């Protein structure tokens, strides 16, 4: 049999189906009854009698991707792609999409959000004249500006076929040849229960492409520590395959209400790969000690592991020095640290702080408290109807009294990616310091401190596949060393008398007492994991999921998406007419789907759009199109149970 190749680099589902049919035709009795029953339970179009001619394409199984009776699109098995992602009545024509669109993120018909996440540039800037916003040009020297050589920018400069290679899927594989070879070695006496139970590809991680069995190893000094987990962790330079990635996350094998767990609450917290779990366990088994100031072996091991984690964070953020990295409990504590140290020391009555309308409560309340104590004024950058900050209005807020601008890089409630570099440069031109809340950005896009040039950047480890209870403050080294500590105690002092205390320089001056050593080490392991996959691949795949989910959610009658900025990360907030958000969350939970429902600690921005709460599915790179299909199918059932009343 000759190998066929899909020109769009997606698996040819027809070829896979034919090969699968040949496989089952080779088995005694044709289709196993239990397999047929599982298909019948999932798809009402499957006939009740076992009379298929599996070698005849005209009488093979009905096409599961166009279920005329249900109207709910399904994903192609194992591929992470649905033919209905762009047009419900026709397969995706990515080639045509690239030919018609000047931007590789437009899907041809303008139906899907376009994103340049990580660039610090919002497409909404094209509607404004940034050079007139402030006296000097805020874009001058912007290393993140349009770059024709950048693989994410300007499809015009790319051959369309080569552009398709950038899509976030397994690179072209001779999967038909491999499957054909596998068929030759099939043992026809194989027990039926060992056959694949369905074709969804969601939970059968090794259904196609490659299966990884080698254990993960990580190095501690001269030791080689073995982790028994499987998956992409084991590969030195793997292609991206979501089915392989999912093997690394043991919690994804959990059942909720008898259904496979579908974790769509990633904006609240991300799940942990086995390598992170193993690394923390190894620390407590072999390295547990307090750090620094000891001559024994375990203290040396613990100190090495802790400081190695600091260096990993430095590299991850592209900070200038590990001394610019401070470990804290999370982004909330990080913002409070800046407010209660630098803010208390440097701000006085009449000074102004600017935040955006998009902020999490953690980036509002500490500044309100500081303003009340010191007589400061808090100003707010407004957002437009799509949920993007309005730079022209921001420029009007800046002035000689502006001392601090503190804003989020990605909104936790809407997913909006703010034009971070422009906001920072405009603030610096006004003489203000800048803090960037990166809690929602670090798991979705590259962040670069030397390029952004912010004064502080904060994030939480549990948002980037690391442990809870650990977070980071990045600060410019000179600024940190000029700032008074916010807590006193051991570890942060050089000398103490009853008359005077001399403090260490950063980072130690901000790490009083015994820190969360084990979870700092775990955060280092999480960064290793993310780096092993590659943030570019993560961004590409998550952007595809966002486009796919956005299109399908828009087709649910009575569903209103909250936050439709053209530059978005993987957050989808919505309300469903006729239902309270908690009712939707409860119904989704019955299907094993975990989403957040409520105000998401971001009440001001939700009220800006006239709602008190939303349902918020949020995506990560281990999610699949099949999971999104299940989410959307459940919403359609809810809609059918309570039809919209037209007045």
- For this entry, what is the oligomeric state of its chains? single chain
The largest sheet is: 7 strands, mixed
The beta-strand count equals 19
Low-confidence spans: 1-10, 45-176, 185-230, 232-237
Strand content: 5-15%
Q: How many whole angstroms does the radius of gyration measure?
A: 26 Å
N-to-C CA distance: 60 Å
Please tell me what the overall shape is.
globular
Strand order of the largest sheet: 6-12-11-10-9-7-8
The percent of residues in helical segments reads 25-40%
Question: Tally the helices: what do you get?
Answer: 19
Write down the overall mean pLDDT: 76
Q: Structural class from helices and strands?
A: alpha/beta
Write out key terms for the chains shown.
alpha/beta, two-stranded antiparallel sheet, 647 residues
What would your notes on this structure say?
It is a single chain. This protein is an alpha/beta fold and 647 residues long. The strands form 7 sheets. It has a 7-stranded mixed beta sheet with strand order 6-12-11-10-9-7-8, sandwiched between helices. It is 32% helix and 12% strand. It has helices at residues 13-25, 33-42, 94-100, 160-164, 175-184, 242-246, 274-287, 297-317, 331-346, 365-374, 391-397, 420-429, 449-452, 477-482, 517-533, 535-554, 581-590, 603-608, 625-641, and strands spanning 216-220, 223-227, 255-256, 259-260, 262-263, 325-328, 352-356, 377-381, 402-408, 433-437, 456-460, 471-475, 493-496, 501-503, 559-562, 573-576, 593-594, 596-598, 614-616. The longest helix has 21 residues, at 297-317. The relative contact order is 0.13. The model is unreliable at 1-10, 45-176, 185-230 and 232-237 (pLDDT under 50). It is built from 19 helices and 19 strands. It is globular.
């Amino acid at each position: 049999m000759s190998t066929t190749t899909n020109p769009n680099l997606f698996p040819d589902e027809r070829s896979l189906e034919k090969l699968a049919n040949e496989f089952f035709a080779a088995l005694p009795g044709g289709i196993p009854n239990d397999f047929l029953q599982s298909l019948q339970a999932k798809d009402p179009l499957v006939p009740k009698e076992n009379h298929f001619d599996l070698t005849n394409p005209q009488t093979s199984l009905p096409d599961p991707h166009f279920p005329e009776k249900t109207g709910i699109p399904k994903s192609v098995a194992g591929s992470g792609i649905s033919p209905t992602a762009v047009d419900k009545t026709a397969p995706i024509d990515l080639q045509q999409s690239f030919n018609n669109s000047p931007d590789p993120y437009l899907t041809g018909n303008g139906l899907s959000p376009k994103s340049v996440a990580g660039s610090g540039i919002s497409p909404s800037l094209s509607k404004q004249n940034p050079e007139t916003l402030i006296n000097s040009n805020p874009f001058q020297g912007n290393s993140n500006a349009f770059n024709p050589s950048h693989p994410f920018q300007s499809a015009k400069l790319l051959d369309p076929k080569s552009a398709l290679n950038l899509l976030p899927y397994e690179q072209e594989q001779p999967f038909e040849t491999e499957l054909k070879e596998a068929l030759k070695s099939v043992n026809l006496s194989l027990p039926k229960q060992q056959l694949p139970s369905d074709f969804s590809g969601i939970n059968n991680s090794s259904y196609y492409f490659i299966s990884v069995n080698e254990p993960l190893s990580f190095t501690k000094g001269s030791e080689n520590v073995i982790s028994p987990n499987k998956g992409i962790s084991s590969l030195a330079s793997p292609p991206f395959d979501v089915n392989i990635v999912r093997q690394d996350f043991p919690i994804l094998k959990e059942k909720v209400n008898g259904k496979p767990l579908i974790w769509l609450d990633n904006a609240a917290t991300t799940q942990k790969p086995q390598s992170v779990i193993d690394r923390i366990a190894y620390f407590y088994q072999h390295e547990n000690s307090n750090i620094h100031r000891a001559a024994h072996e375990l203290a040396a091991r613990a100190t090495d592991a802790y400081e190695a984690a600091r260096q990993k964070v430095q590299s991850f953020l592209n900070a200038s020095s590990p001394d610019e990295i401070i470990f804290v409990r999370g982004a909330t504590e990080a913002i409070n640290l800046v407010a209660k140290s630098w803010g208390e020391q440097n701000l006085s009555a009449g000074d102004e702080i600017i935040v955006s309308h998009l902020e999490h409560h953690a980036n509002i309340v500490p500044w309100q408290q500081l303003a009340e104590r010191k007589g400061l004024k808090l100003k707010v950058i407004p957002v437009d109807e799509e949920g993007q900050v309005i730079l022209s209005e921001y420029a009007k807020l800046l002035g000689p009294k502006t001392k601090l601008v503190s804003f989020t890089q990605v909104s936790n409630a809407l997913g909006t990616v703010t034009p971070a570099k422009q906001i920072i440069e405009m603030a610096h031109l006004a003489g203000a310091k800048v803090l960037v809340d990166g809690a929602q950005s670090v798991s979705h896009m590259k962040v670069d401190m030397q390029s952004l040039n912010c004064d502080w950047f904060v994030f939480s480890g549990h948002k980037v596949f690391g442990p809870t209870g650990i977070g980071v403050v990045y600060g410019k080294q000179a600024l940190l060393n000029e700032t008074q500590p916010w807590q006193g105690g051991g570890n942060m002092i050089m000398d103490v008398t009853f008359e005077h205390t001399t403090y260490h320089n950063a980072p130690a001056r901000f790490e009083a007492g015994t820190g969360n050593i084990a979870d700092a080490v775990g955060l280092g392991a999480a960064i290793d994991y993310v780096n092993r996959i590659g943030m570019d691949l993560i961004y590409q795949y998550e952007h595809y999921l966002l486009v796919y989910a956005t299109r399908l959610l828009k087709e649910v009658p009575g569903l209103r998406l909250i936050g439709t900025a053209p530059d978005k990360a993987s957050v989808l907030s919505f309300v469903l007419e006729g239902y309270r958000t908690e009712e939707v969350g409860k119904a989704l939970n019955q299907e094993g789907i975990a989403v957040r429902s409520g105000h998401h600690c971001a009440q001001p921005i939700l009220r800006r759009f006239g709602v008190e709460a939303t349902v918020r599915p949020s995506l990560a790179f281990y999610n699949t199109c099949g999971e999104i299909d299940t989410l959307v199918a459940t919403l359609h059932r809810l809609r059918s149970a309570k039809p919209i009343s037209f007045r």
